[in-house]
Specification:
Blueprint: E1 22-24, H1 27-33, E2 39-41
Antiparallel strand pairs: 1-2
């Protein structure tokens, strides 16, 4: 098995997926997420690719 950290989604971490977490005291957001009022969160923009053979 060849090791390839750039293409191994199970065992490797791509640099583009590493982000900072922010601390939040927002009680409304905490209630929405079902967590305590002091929590950490991170944001990611995720784009899904269309299935092969389909158009957008």
């Amino acid at each position: 098995m060849t090791e390839s950290p750039r293409s191994d989604a199970v065992f490797a971490v791509k640099q583009g997926l590493i982000t900072d977490f922010a601390v939040s005291h927002d009680e409304r957001a905490a209630e929405r997420f079902g967590v305590a009022a002091l929590f950490t969160h991170a944001g990611f923009d995720i784009v899904l690719a269309p299935e092969a053979g389909t158009s957008r």
